[in-house]
Amino acid sequence: MIQRLLPFLTLALLFVGLSLASPHFLTPTNISAVVRQTAVINIMALGMTMIIIAGGIDLSVGSMLALSGMMGSMAMDRGWPIPAGILIGLATGLACGFANGFISSRLRINPFIVTLGTLGIYRGIALIASSGLPVQALPKGFSFLGEGSLLGVPFVLWVLLLCGVAVHVLLEHTRMGRYAYAIGSNPEAAFYAGIPVAFHTTAVYAVGGLLTGLAAMIECSRLNTGQPTAGQGYELQTIAAVVIGGGSLRGGEGSVIGTLIGAFIMGLLANGSDLLGISPYLQQAIIGAVIILAVLLDEFRKRRTAG
Fold it and tell me: Domain residue spans in the chain?
């Protein structure tokens, strides 16, 4: 029980600690900045939660974000309206996620290998399509997606809440969600129980890709540019958010609330490190150590339960 509550306790302690350590932490400007900065990882992590629950993993989400952002940005740069550009970014993410799921499930190739390969493919396509150059001539109204506010609340927070509710409903109240947990817990048993494993595995990856496409457009909106090099290292942060939030890399476990808490823990760590003048290089080491610690706790809990 304590290990289940650990992410909540960690977030609370981190929040209190940073409030005491820096007078700038609790300012409305800084809290708003944390929300906007973590929204991209949060939304990507929601998709990764579904994938990890189904027993998979996606190492290509950073490259997928770059490619989706470039496709949407290039469309707007060529005169397409803002909604059409956003839809193109979403469709690109959906297609990339579908490809990952289809190859790994239909061809029965380990998803680690598949997504390691597509990590390079998607990044390469983004660089080829843009000739390695960023897209900067984006419409002014597009910045509202990442930087605007609605009812005094950052607009991205509304988007994040909507995505969180949608994924929670999908996981807890639909056949697709129940099948995802079953596939992640025991894919062979799920297959013999009549569950179309390949179809639902592909669907989970496709939804993850769709959410990554949305995160890509938010990232482009915040930066007001499309960058073919965007998203480098995001796969580490996304997976870390799921694991810190209680998801198991063995599959069959994970939750929306846990993932959101895990992502905000990482966001607070990064923000607090900046406020306290801690090196960004040390931040990377801290993230890696936190992942190992979270996995160790998960393994310890499972062995204790089994024993």
Answer: 2-302
Beta-carbon count within 10 A of 223 CB: 18
Per-residue model confidence (pLDDT) at position 305: 64
Beta-carbon contacts of residue 133 (< 8 Å; ≥ 6 apart):
228
Q: HEC states along 85-146?
A: HHHHHHHHHHHHHHHHHHHHHHCCCCHHHHHHHHHHHHHHHHHHHHCCCCECCCCHHHHHHH
Q: What is the pLDDT of residue 1?
A: 52
Architecture of domain 2-302: Orthogonal Bundle (1.10)
- pLDDT tens digit string along 144-198? 988 888 888 889 999 999 999 999 999 999 999 999 999 998 989 988 888 999 9
Please name the residue ranges forming H helices in the chain: 2-21, 28-53, 61-77, 82-106, 111-130, 144-147, 155-173, 175-185, 187-192, 197-223, 234-244, 256-275, 280-306
* ∠ Cα 89 90 96 (to 5°): 90
pLDDT in tens, 89-144: 999 999 999 999 999 998 989 999 999 999 999 999 999 998 888 888 788 889 89
- Rounded to an integer, what distance in angstroms lies between the CA atom of residue 287 and that of residue 270? 9
